[in-house]
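note to self — DONT lose this again. spent like an hour looking for the file last time. sequence + predicted structure for the chain T wanted, 85 res
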Amino acid sequence: MKNFHLPLPEQTYIRLRAEADRTRVPATTLAREAVDGWLRQQSRKARQDAIAAFAMEMAGTHLDLDTDLESAGIEHLVKGRKTSR
């Protein structure tokens, strides 16, 4: 575990302390969980952006989605919507 000094705006600090008191969880734990969650979210977004960029770049090439597979996927999604209603 590493320590990291993080100055916070007063309102953020007050809200963090209030949540720590309310939940009886240390403020450092809440802050750590918030940072971890944000970092996971950023990682997912970066991965999604990379996949989207690859898909755009490869659109229309031999690496593009197989048309038969794409049709089967669309058909499956459409059938799934009809049965879930």
